[in-house]
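#help-structures

NK: newbie question. if I give both the sequence and a SMILES, will the prediction place the ligand too? trying with molybdenum atom
OV: yes, paste both and it writes out the complex. here, I ran yours:
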Amino acid sequence: MSHDAAHDPLRPHAHDPNLVTPPGDGRFEIVLPGRGPQTIQIAALRALPTVRLENCYIVSTGHGTSGPFTFEGPTLLALIRAHLPDDEWTQVEVISADGFGNRVTARELLNPDPAGPIALAHTLDGAPLRRDQGLVRLIVPSERDDALRQVKWVGRIRLRR
Ligand SMILES: Nc1nc2c(c(=O)[nH]1)N[C@H]1C(S)=C(S)[C@@H](COP(=O)(O)O)O[C@H]1N2
Ligand SMILES: [Mo]
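OV: that's the protein plus ligand as C-alpha coordinates.
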Protein backbone atom coordinates (compact mmCIF):
# COMPACT_ATOMS: atom_id res chain seq x y z
CA MET A 1 0.00 0.00 0.00
CA SER A 2 1.36 3.42 -0.87
CA HIS A 3 1.46 6.27 1.61
CA ASP A 4 0.53 9.35 -0.34
CA ALA A 5 0.83 12.13 2.27
CA ALA A 6 -1.99 14.05 0.62
CA HIS A 7 -4.34 11.15 1.37
CA ASP A 8 -3.02 10.07 4.76
CA PRO A 9 -5.99 10.45 7.14
CA LEU A 10 -3.56 10.69 10.06
CA ARG A 11 -2.02 13.84 8.60
CA PRO A 12 -4.90 16.13 7.82
CA HIS A 13 -3.56 19.14 5.95
CA ALA A 14 -6.66 21.28 6.16
CA HIS A 15 -8.34 22.71 9.23
CA ASP A 16 -11.74 22.96 7.59
CA PRO A 17 -13.81 20.60 9.71
CA ASN A 18 -16.33 18.32 8.09
CA LEU A 19 -19.78 19.30 9.35
CA VAL A 20 -21.63 16.76 7.21
CA THR A 21 -22.34 13.30 8.62
CA PRO A 22 -20.50 10.75 6.45
CA PRO A 23 -22.43 7.92 4.80
CA GLY A 24 -22.26 4.41 6.23
CA ASP A 25 -23.86 2.48 9.03
CA GLY A 26 -21.88 4.00 11.90
CA ARG A 27 -19.94 0.77 12.38
CA PHE A 28 -17.22 0.91 15.01
CA GLU A 29 -14.37 -1.60 14.91
CA ILE A 30 -11.01 -2.41 16.44
CA VAL A 31 -8.04 -3.91 14.60
CA LEU A 32 -5.51 -5.66 16.83
CA PRO A 33 -1.94 -6.22 15.60
CA GLY A 34 -1.90 -9.01 13.03
CA ARG A 35 -5.67 -9.49 13.18
CA GLY A 36 -8.69 -8.60 11.08
CA PRO A 37 -11.25 -5.98 12.10
CA GLN A 38 -13.63 -6.83 14.96
CA THR A 39 -16.89 -4.93 15.24
CA ILE A 40 -17.62 -3.31 18.60
CA GLN A 41 -21.28 -2.64 19.34
CA ILE A 42 -22.00 0.79 20.78
CA ALA A 43 -23.72 -1.06 23.67
CA ALA A 44 -20.40 -2.77 24.46
CA LEU A 45 -18.64 0.61 24.43
CA ARG A 46 -21.29 1.92 26.84
CA ALA A 47 -20.77 -1.07 29.13
CA LEU A 48 -17.13 -0.11 29.83
CA PRO A 49 -16.26 2.02 32.87
CA THR A 50 -16.76 5.67 31.98
CA VAL A 51 -14.83 8.86 32.66
CA ARG A 52 -16.49 12.26 32.82
CA LEU A 53 -14.57 15.07 31.10
CA GLU A 54 -15.93 18.46 32.11
CA ASN A 55 -15.16 21.88 30.64
CA CYS A 56 -14.15 20.59 27.22
CA TYR A 57 -13.99 23.08 24.36
CA ILE A 58 -13.95 22.39 20.62
CA VAL A 59 -11.68 25.09 19.25
CA SER A 60 -12.33 25.46 15.54
CA THR A 61 -10.17 27.80 13.51
CA GLY A 62 -13.07 27.80 11.00
CA HIS A 63 -16.27 28.33 13.00
CA GLY A 64 -14.99 29.43 16.39
CA THR A 65 -14.96 27.85 19.82
CA SER A 66 -17.89 25.89 21.20
CA GLY A 67 -18.39 24.61 24.74
CA PRO A 68 -17.97 24.06 27.59
CA PHE A 69 -19.10 20.48 27.06
CA THR A 70 -19.15 17.49 29.38
CA PHE A 71 -18.18 14.36 27.46
CA GLU A 72 -18.46 10.86 28.90
CA GLY A 73 -17.15 7.52 27.70
CA PRO A 74 -14.42 4.98 28.38
CA THR A 75 -10.80 5.99 28.16
CA LEU A 76 -9.14 4.82 24.95
CA LEU A 77 -6.82 2.81 27.19
CA ALA A 78 -9.77 1.00 28.84
CA LEU A 79 -11.14 0.02 25.42
CA ILE A 80 -7.73 -1.26 24.34
CA ARG A 81 -7.22 -3.20 27.58
CA ALA A 82 -10.64 -4.83 27.14
CA HIS A 83 -9.48 -6.28 23.81
CA LEU A 84 -5.74 -6.75 24.23
CA PRO A 85 -4.28 -7.63 27.61
CA ASP A 86 -0.62 -7.39 26.55
CA ASP A 87 1.47 -4.24 26.14
CA GLU A 88 2.74 -5.17 22.70
CA TRP A 89 1.56 -1.99 21.04
CA THR A 90 3.13 1.46 20.81
CA GLN A 91 0.55 3.51 18.99
CA VAL A 92 -3.10 3.66 18.08
CA GLU A 93 -4.64 5.04 14.92
CA VAL A 94 -8.10 6.50 15.40
CA ILE A 95 -9.78 6.76 12.00
CA SER A 96 -13.13 8.28 11.15
CA ALA A 97 -15.70 7.32 8.57
CA ASP A 98 -14.93 10.52 6.61
CA GLY A 99 -11.22 9.76 6.26
CA PHE A 100 -10.00 11.94 9.11
CA GLY A 101 -7.88 10.61 11.91
CA ASN A 102 -5.38 10.97 14.66
CA ARG A 103 -2.46 9.00 16.02
CA VAL A 104 -2.21 8.43 19.77
CA THR A 105 0.88 6.99 21.43
CA ALA A 106 0.97 4.39 24.23
CA ARG A 107 3.01 6.93 26.20
CA GLU A 108 0.18 9.48 26.07
CA LEU A 109 -2.34 6.88 27.21
CA LEU A 110 -0.19 5.51 30.03
CA ASN A 111 0.75 9.01 31.33
CA PRO A 112 -2.45 11.05 30.96
CA ASP A 113 -2.15 14.82 30.69
CA PRO A 114 -3.33 16.78 33.78
CA ALA A 115 -6.15 18.14 31.59
CA GLY A 116 -7.64 14.62 31.52
CA PRO A 117 -7.30 11.23 29.85
CA ILE A 118 -7.90 10.62 26.16
CA ALA A 119 -11.35 9.08 25.85
CA LEU A 120 -13.92 7.78 23.37
CA ALA A 121 -17.01 9.83 24.14
CA HIS A 122 -20.46 8.35 23.56
CA THR A 123 -22.30 10.88 25.72
CA LEU A 124 -22.47 14.68 25.49
CA ASP A 125 -23.95 16.74 28.33
CA GLY A 126 -25.80 13.69 29.65
CA ALA A 127 -27.37 12.55 26.36
CA PRO A 128 -26.13 10.00 23.80
CA LEU A 129 -24.02 11.62 21.08
CA ARG A 130 -26.21 11.71 17.99
CA ARG A 131 -24.79 10.56 14.68
CA ASP A 132 -24.59 14.17 13.42
CA GLN A 133 -22.59 15.04 16.57
CA GLY A 134 -20.07 12.31 15.89
CA LEU A 135 -21.69 9.22 17.49
CA VAL A 136 -18.34 8.12 18.94
CA ARG A 137 -15.87 10.97 19.34
CA LEU A 138 -12.22 10.96 20.38
CA ILE A 139 -11.72 13.55 23.10
CA VAL A 140 -8.19 14.77 23.81
CA PRO A 141 -8.59 17.18 26.75
CA SER A 142 -5.06 18.58 26.41
CA GLU A 143 -5.68 19.80 22.82
CA ARG A 144 -6.95 23.39 22.78
CA ASP A 145 -5.67 24.82 19.49
CA ASP A 146 -7.57 23.58 16.44
CA ALA A 147 -9.59 20.48 17.40
CA LEU A 148 -7.61 18.39 14.92
CA ARG A 149 -7.48 15.58 17.52
CA GLN A 150 -11.17 15.71 18.46
CA VAL A 151 -12.15 13.09 15.88
CA LYS A 152 -15.87 12.70 15.16
CA TRP A 153 -17.44 9.51 13.69
CA VAL A 154 -14.66 7.23 14.92
CA GLY A 155 -15.02 4.11 12.80
CA ARG A 156 -11.79 2.21 13.37
CA ILE A 157 -9.23 1.89 16.16
CA ARG A 158 -6.03 0.23 14.88
CA LEU A 159 -3.24 -0.81 17.21
CA ARG A 160 0.34 -0.82 15.94
CA ARG A 161 3.26 -2.63 17.54
N1 LIG B 1 -14.32 12.97 11.54
C1 LIG B 1 -13.93 14.23 11.62
N2 LIG B 1 -13.64 14.73 12.83
C2 LIG B 1 -13.21 16.01 12.94
C3 LIG B 1 -13.03 16.82 11.80
C4 LIG B 1 -13.35 16.27 10.53
O1 LIG B 1 -13.27 16.92 9.47
N3 LIG B 1 -13.81 14.97 10.49
N4 LIG B 1 -12.56 18.11 11.92
C5 LIG B 1 -11.90 18.46 13.19
C6 LIG B 1 -11.81 19.91 13.32
S1 LIG B 1 -10.56 20.66 12.46
C7 LIG B 1 -12.69 20.61 14.10
S2 LIG B 1 -12.54 22.28 14.31
C8 LIG B 1 -13.77 19.93 14.85
C9 LIG B 1 -15.14 20.56 14.66
O2 LIG B 1 -16.01 19.95 15.56
P1 LIG B 1 -17.52 20.39 15.69
O3 LIG B 1 -18.20 20.05 14.39
O4 LIG B 1 -18.05 19.60 16.85
O5 LIG B 1 -17.52 21.87 15.96
O6 LIG B 1 -13.88 18.55 14.50
C10 LIG B 1 -12.66 17.89 14.38
N5 LIG B 1 -12.95 16.50 14.17
MO1 LIG C 1 -10.38 22.72 13.49
